[in-house]
């Protein structure tokens, strides 16, 4: 059995989740469910990034300790995963001293032993929004173009990681697709960024200073540090957020665990890191360089999604257009929200969220398209076959088989190339084909003069609908299950000859809304 390990980025908990993170969760969930269908031993990780200056400031603004603040916000991200029916196997928090800290500190020690960490005084422009030092050339009118804030001038002594030692090696790895970056435009972007890459700050001064650390990572004491992980063997420094956060992908599967049966030995390297375009540099340059330094395998691919705008504008608290995913899910249902995000928004580009467009997709695609097809097939079986169809593969038409085969091939190609919206479009191609097939064949007329012809029509429809259920299941798992239950069955790859489809109930899957 092949293994498949997929991760989302871990959400930064300075604010509650918005609709953009719901998109990333849904995309990763589709890929995880798809690989389970393929029979792969799948591990799906998500979680929260809970350290850093921005969080400490947000906690202070809320009049809470960083610990209480992150507990509250992290719970909201965990709740979103549950409400959206995300099938993650694990949820990692970087504030978890038992699970995360030991691995983060072990990785630090590996980099130090390699000679890739050094200490120096540094002065630069620090963007709180990025949690990173940025160049003056990156600013627009002295303001960060992404966060619309002016960076702070900071001079301090930090630990630095020798990123430049790995530039040439990384360039070859990325150019050869040993580390695949999708879409291809993002690969070009990373190669351009790599040309200008410099050694990167890996720590910030602790205030108050940390207790000196030596020996096992678990000896670190949380109460004695600034909000972050203490640097091993240096009481004056706290791990910089990226040195800390990126290691979640190995900490969650037990990198610090010496057990030969650990999940790390089973699942690493990751098959897919799914991230937003704003953190691509860290995942495609900094993280792989860290892994090379530690002599660890690199992830196989990085899939990059864009931003979600709202009615054409970037989400902003100032504008007041931040979409609360919990409210949208409560109003329309999670399957509808999943469908809209995964169909309307291109997987690898920016996309727009609009309630009006959501309603259009609901009525046009879910109600009139899928719901109508299920209703028609179920009604035909109930009214003309006493609710039971015995499947006979001899009745399947070669043209129908070929159509399904062609669409499935396109679907698989799109799934493998991170074109999830196109794969979902392929499913609707099959739904449209089936609805047109009903209109052309007119089974309600055939039953009056030729029962055999009716059986041929309904059997081909049922076989097509079975394939629709299966292809749809990674995207809309509950809908696929409900369709299967309508015909008295369960989801499975193949239909056995002689299998009995028994109509259990006929209810509108997606009643039209106004």
Uncertain runs are 208-225
Query: Beta-strand level of the residues, as a percent range?
Result: 15-25%
> How would you state the average pLDDT, rounded?
91
Under the CATH scheme, the architecture of the largest domain is 3-Layer(aba) Sandwich
Number of strands: 18
Instruction: Write the CATH homologous superfamily of the largest domain.
Output: HUPs
Give a short account of the largest sheet: 7 strands, parallel
Q: What's the number of structural domains?
A: 2
| CA-CA gap between termini | 47 Å
Mass-distribution shape = elongated
- Give the CATH topology of the largest domain: Rossmann fold
CATH class of the largest domain: Alpha Beta
Q: What would you call the structural class?
A: alpha/beta
Q: How many DSSP helices? A: 18
Helix content: 40-55%
| Radius of gyration computed on alpha carbons | 26 Å
Give a written overview of the molecule:
The protein is 46% helix and 16% strand. It is of the alpha/beta class. The protein has 2 domains: 3-325, Rossmann fold (3-Layer(aba) Sandwich), CATH 3.40.50.620; 355-502, Isoleucyl-tRNA Synthetase, Domain 1 (Orthogonal Bundle).
What's a concise summary of this model?
Belongs to the class-I aminoacyl-tRNA synthetase family. This protein has 514 residues and is α/β, with parallel strands linked by helices. It has two domains: 3-325, Rossmann fold (3-Layer(aba) Sandwich), CATH 3.40.50.620; 355-502, Orthogonal Bundle (Isoleucyl-tRNA Synthetase, Domain 1).
Give the SSE layout.
Blueprint: E1 3-8, E2 11-12, H1 19-37, E3 41-49, H2 53-61, H3 66-83, E4 90-93, H4 101-113, E5 117-127, E6 132-134, E7 152-161, H5 167-175, E8 180-182, H6 184-195, E9 200-201, E10 203-205, E11 237-239, H7 241-245, H8 248-251, H9 263-267, E12 272-276, H10 280-293, E13 301-305, E14 308-310, E15 313-314, H11 325-332, H12 334-344, E16 351-353, H13 355-384, E17 388-390, H14 398-416, H15 420-441, H16 443-449, H17 451-472, H18 477-486, E18 500-502
Parallel strand pairs: 1-3, 1-12, 2-3, 3-4, 8-13, 12-13, 14-16
Antiparallel strand pairs: 5-6, 5-7, 7-9, 10-11, 14-15, 17-18
Helix pairs in contact: 2-3, 5-6, 6-10, 11-12, 12-13, 13-15, 13-17, 14-15, 14-17, 15-17, 16-17, 17-18
């Amino acid at each position: 059995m092949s293994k498949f390990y997929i991760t989302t980025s871990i959400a930064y908990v300075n604010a509650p989740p918005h609709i953009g993170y719901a998109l990333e969760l849904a995309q990763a969930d589709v890929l995880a469910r798809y690989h389970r269908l393929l029979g792969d031993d799948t591990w799906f990780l998500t979680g929260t990034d809970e350290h850093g200056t921005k969080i400490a400031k947000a906690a202070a603004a809320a009049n809470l300790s960083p610990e209480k603040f992150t507990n509250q916000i992290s719970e909201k991200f965990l709740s979103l995963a549950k409400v959206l029916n995300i099938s993650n196997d694990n949820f990692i928090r970087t504030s978890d001293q038992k699970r995360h800290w030991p691995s983060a500190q072990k990785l630090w020690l590996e980099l130090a032993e390699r000679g890739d960490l050094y200490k120096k005084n540094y002065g630069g422009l620090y963007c709180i929004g990025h949690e990173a030092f940025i160049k003056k050339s990156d600013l627009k009118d002295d303001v960060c173009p992404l966060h619309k804030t002016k960076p702070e001038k900071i001079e301090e002594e930090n630990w630095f990681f020798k990123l430049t030692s790995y530039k040439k090696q990384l360039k070859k790895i990325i150019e050869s697709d040993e580390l695949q970056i999708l879409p291809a435009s993002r690969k070009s972007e990373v190669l351009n960024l790599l040309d200008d890459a410099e050694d990167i700050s890996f720590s910030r001064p602790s205030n108050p200073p940390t207790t000196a650390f030596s020996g096992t990572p678990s000896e670190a004491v949380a109460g004695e540090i600034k909000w972050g992980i203490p640097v091993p063997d240096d009481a004056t420094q706290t791990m910089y957020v990226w040195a800390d956060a990126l290691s979640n992908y190995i900490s969650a599967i037990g990198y610090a665990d010496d057990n030969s049966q650990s999940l790390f030995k089973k699942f690493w390297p990751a098959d897919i890191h799914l991230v937003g375009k704003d953190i691509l540099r860290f995942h495609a340059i900094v993280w792989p360089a860290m892994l090379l330094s530690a002599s660890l395998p690199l992830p196989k691919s990085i899939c990059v999604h864009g931003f979600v705008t709202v009615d054409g504008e970037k989400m902003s608290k100032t504008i007041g257009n931040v979409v609360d995913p919990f409210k949208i899910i409560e109003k329309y249902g999670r399957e509808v929200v999943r469908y809209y995000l995964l169909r309307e928004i291109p997987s690898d580009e920016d996309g727009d969220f609009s309630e009006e467009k959501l309603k259009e997709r609901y009525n046009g695609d879910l109600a009139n398209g899928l719901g109508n097809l299920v209703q028609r097939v179920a009604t035909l079986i109930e009214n003309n076959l006493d609710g039971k169809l015995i499947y006979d593969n001899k009745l399947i038409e070669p043209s129908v088989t070929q159509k399904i085969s062609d669409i499935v091939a396109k679907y698989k190609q799109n799934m493998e190339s991170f074109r999830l919206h196109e794969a979902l479009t392929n499913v609707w191609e099959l739904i449209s084909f089936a609805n047109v097939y009903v209109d052309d064949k007119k089974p309600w007329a055939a039953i009056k003069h030729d029962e055999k012809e009716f059986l041929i029509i309904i059997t081909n429809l049922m076989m097509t609908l079975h394939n629709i259920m299966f292809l749809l299941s990674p995207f809309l798992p509950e809908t696929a299950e409900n369709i299967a239950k309508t015909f008295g069955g369960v989801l499975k790859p193949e239909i056995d000859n002689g299998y009995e489809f028994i109509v259990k109930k006929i209810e509108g899957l997606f009643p039209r809304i106004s």
